[in-house]
Amino acid sequence: MAKLIKAFLGVLNGEIYPTQFEAGDECPPELEAGALELGALGTGGVSVEDMTAAQIKEALDGKGIEYKASMSKAELVELLAGAGE
Length: 85
What we know:
single chain; two-stranded antiparallel ribbon
């Protein structure tokens, strides 16, 4: 897991309330895309190529970029990379 470089508030899978994570904490895999989007992950964070399709879609949603649900992971990576990610 990647380490957070600043405080981050995220909702873990199966939870309904957010958890406060502090700088230096390990970032849970299901929150890495959100933390990356907010700049809370260090350079050792997950790269776009290593993200799951769901994480890429989450990052695209966060940027307000529309995509087709049927797009392949490679197409999603290309779309996210074109958005300056």
